[in-house]
């Protein structure tokens, strides 16, 4: 996915502003299994997924719990590192060979001060991420497991081919055995 598409899906900017942002980006490629962000480290850079998929997980009682999944067009960021210069509580691992755009926080903050359109894009990005987190939380708290699975099938069916079932199960807040039962009932 081109960076213009990624940026404009949040907030359409004039070409001049987009060009300023593009000049601060670096394109990188990493293999499947690469940890873009690591638990306990301060990560200030922001990554946009051009190609690939990533999962964010944390360890609870020795088990990896996937709490977020991003694919083409998504943004990888450690909010604790970005906002507070604190070590992150998450690890973000690439689940496929991936191509990312990298943007340094320092450069982005400079752009926020110099360009109102880029600042509005940042505000809109934060609003949309907060809304997505709220919707996910409400779903996890109110929907039964089979409903969450059906919602995943409806909204992101490709994740079933791109992620291991164990990651999908923890993302849905269920065990792998429960996921297998739900899938068997659907067939």
UniProtKB/TrEMBL annotation:
PROSITE patterns: CNMP_BINDING_3. It comes from Marseilla massiliensis. Residues 13-112 form the Cyclic nucleotide-binding domain. This is Crp/Fnr family transcriptional regulator.
